[in-house]
Each structure stands twice: as C-alpha cells, then as structure tokens.
Design a protein that fits this description.
By secondary structure, this protein is of the alpha+beta class. The protein is 55% helix and 12% strand. It comes from Castilleja foliolosa.
Length: 191
C-alpha cells in the first residue's frame, strides 16, 4: 500500500515550519532557526531513505549511493530527475535543479521589502527574496544530508539560489577526521 501526500500540503507545511521557527519560536534569535529547520529535514531525509531502500541490497560504494540519491530519491521526492550533477572526484558534488518544485511558487511582497528603505527597491526586493528563500532551503538541505547519512555518507550540504526557481545544492563528504570535532562538541553540550 502506497501512501502519498498532496504536494500542496507539503509546501504549506514547509512554509509554516519556516514561519513558525523564524517568527515564533526563535523570533529573538533568528540565527537559531536555520539549524533547527535543517535538523527537521535531516530526520525526514533519514527516514525517507530508509523507506526507499528497504527492499534494496546495501550499496557497495559511495557512487551507487550518489546515483540512488540523484535518480531514484530525487525523482520520488520531487517528481523529476535532477538537471545536472557535477563532481570534482574528491568528494564534492554539485546538484542542479533548474525548476526546484518547492521554490516554484515562492514570492516576496515588494511593499515589505521597500518600506523605510533608501536603497534601490529592486535590489532590496532581491535581497529580501534571497533571504526568505534561503531559509526555505535549509529543509531540503537537511533532507539530502539525512538521506546520505543513512546511506553511510556523512556530509555537509549547502544550497545556492541565483535565479528562482533554479537551485544548486552542493555537498561534500566529510572525512573521519572532520567528524571527530563535531562529536566532541556534541558530547560537551550534553555534559
């Protein structure tokens, strides 16, 4: 039995999560909202990759896992394949989606962007759009990081938007020596 959720519900939920964390929970400290949104995405990606790979044998190498993310996982999640995948063959991958579905319906109110400003209205609107959209990209970055982590590839994921709704997600695999300080930091926080 396949259970699916309407895409409009997912988009609305994602927008509400971002709004709730930025304006409600972390209204006084907006810099704390981004890691929390990314952490929620991480949990979602981890669980989705577990579900999507349940009937498959374990991947034997990182390349098979990357192919799975770019072909099957991305297609299942966004109903299209990625437009471009590049790598430097040293653990860095750049995934490009020229029409990222979760950004296709994003817009910014220009009256909010230009109120009380001396700067050029178009520049302010672009800055506001980039900032607002950037917060919405922490969730998909977390999804990709969680999925890769579940497949045995610890990594860092970042997103870049230059022209809506195009999106470029970059990730690089973390080496074991890169993971040690992070683990120590988390242990210190728990004590």
């Amino acid at each position: 039995m396949v259970r699916e959720v309407a895409e409009s519900c997912v988009e609305s939920l994602m927008a509400e999560i971002v709004s709730s964390y930025c304006r409600g929970v972390y209204a006084n400290k907006p810099e704390l909202a981004a890691p929390r949104i990314e952490a929620i995405g991480f949990q979602v990606g981890h669980r989705l990759s577990e579900r999507y790979t349940m009937d498959r044998p374990r991947f034997t190498d990182h390349l098979e896992a990357i192919k799975f993310i770019c072909k099957d996982f991305w297609s299942d999640l966004f109903k299209k394949q990625i437009d471009n995948l590049k790598t430097n063959h040293r653990g860095t991958f750049v995934l490009q989606d020229n029409r990222f579905r979760w950004l296709a319906h994003m817009s910014v109110d220009p009256s909010v962007a230009t109120s009380g400003s001396i700067q050029d209205p178009s520049t302010m609107a672009e800055n506001e759009a980039a900032q607002a959209t950037g917060l919405h990209l922490y969730f998909p970055c977390g999804i990709i990081r969680g999925a890769l982590s579940n497949l045995g590839i610890p990594c860092a994921v970042s997103a870049d938007i230059s022209n809506l709704p195009a999106c470029v997600l970059s990730w690089y695999a973390l080496k074991p020596e890169d993971l040690v300080p992070t683990m120590i930091t988390w242990i210190e926080l728990l004590v």
